[in-house]
Design a protein that fits this description.
28% helix, 5-stranded antiparallel β-sheet, single chain, Peptide Deformylase
């Protein structure tokens, strides 16, 4: 079982623009490992720190689903450098369980970020990687994928969004379990 839980809509942290992270921050490598673990357990390809409740400009991506260690991307303080073209394809999000909608994204994306060593690098991609780069950077800017869908798509998923809001309200009203000593 993963150490980190994925935060779901409508939690306010998903709408929070995240703060820069120091690559030398103690425990950062462990946090990143925990984020990959949570992402793989949820069968995702990307995860932003605010999706696990942390106000940090940090995201992890692995379009191979854990099959290729070389495909793992760690993005500290990423910035979008370029996007080209436009495509509308079905997309989902770990913070919106069981919801998929046609989302507008660039066909190509180029991002500049820091690695764990603090050095800056650039990554670019199209297809699934390009979409994941855009999706995770949106999270870090306090945007969610439903912000990029048409009104018609919003109408199609409005019932599911209401369910998520109702579940969150119900969860909030439950008494918290006391920790045992």
């Amino acid at each position: 079982m993963p150490k980190l839980s994925i935060i779901t809509y409508p939690d306010p942290i998903l709408r929070t623009k995240t703060a820069p992270v120091d690559p030398k921050e103690p425990g950062l490598k462990r946090l990143i490992d925990d984020m990959f673990e949570a992402m793989y357990a949820a069968e995702g390809v990307g995860l932003a720190a605010n999706q696990v409740g942390l106000n940090k400009r940090l995201a992890v991506i692995d379009c191979s689903g854990g099959e290729d260690p070389q495909a793992k991307l760690i993005l500290l303080n990423p910035q979008m450098l370029a996007m080209e073209g436009e495509v509308e394809e079905e997309e989902g999000c770990l913070s919106f369980p069981k919801i998929r909608a046609k989302t507008r994204r660039g066909i190509f994306a180029r991002v500049r970020a820091q690695g764990l060593d603090g050095k800056f690098f650039e990554v670019e991609g199209e297809g699934l990687l390009g979409k994941a780069l855009q999706h995770e950077l949106d999270h870090l800017d306090g945007k969610v994928f439903v912000d990029r869908i048409s009104l018609a798509q919003k109408a199609l998923i409005s019932g599911k969004l209401k369910e998520l809001r109702a579940e969150a309200k119900e969860e909030k009203g439950r008494p918290k379990a006391k920790a045992r000593r």
